[in-house]
Amino acid sequence: MSPSPARYDAVADFYVSGWPDSIDDPASLRLLSLAEPIAGRRILDLACGHGRITRELARRRAIVTGVDISGALLARARLAERESALGVTYVHADVTAPEQPWLSMSPYDVVTCNFGLSDIDDLDAAVTAAARALRPGGTFVCSILHPCFPGGHHVSGSWPEGGRYHDEGWWRADAELSSLRRQVGANHRTLSTYLNTFRRHGLRLDVLAEPEPPEDWTAGRQDAARHPVFLVARCVKDG
After folding, report:
1. pLDDT of residue 1
2. Which fold has domain 7-146+186-219+227-237?
3. What is the distance in angstroms between the CA of the first residue and the CA of the last residue of the chain?
């Protein structure tokens, strides 16, 4: 059974146009560096969207499967695969569903999730799927908006304006420069919630990085750039 319509289905055109194939943002570059070695390894890209990271992993000669709940975004990913085949397998599925037939393709050497965890309402179920997909000693690499990012002028932070860092839950941004999260919202969780969830599922923190945003982003958001904006983590599955 296909998953129900996803939040990104309604904004697929906007999302694809705003996040093209070029991988030049510091958070995605750090995620890719922490996924190394890539060539020849089996990699699962969770919440793969239109396949931006998935395709880059394949270009680096990984054997890649991408999974996403958005049929509209996956249609773009499959179109790109038909136009320039890289051998990527795409699966339309809700990674938090109790039955996961696509996990029969496990185990993977690496699971990646680039800015996807805050879009997923059930973090525990998503991390369960990531841990199940990995072989012992495999790595889980993810990037997110930093849970401690308070925002700035015309830029929404990780939690609602007027709210508190410790208040978790889904919300929709309203700042002028937070164009994507104004449309699809995001789940705010504390840093400890993320790290404790990883550890509870046998994913031991190995590397934590806080890459700075690019200069063109910082130039128009200097007050926001005084704070940590991105968080990238690599965890290793217990043997």
Report:
1. 47
2. Rossmann fold (3.40.50)
3. 33
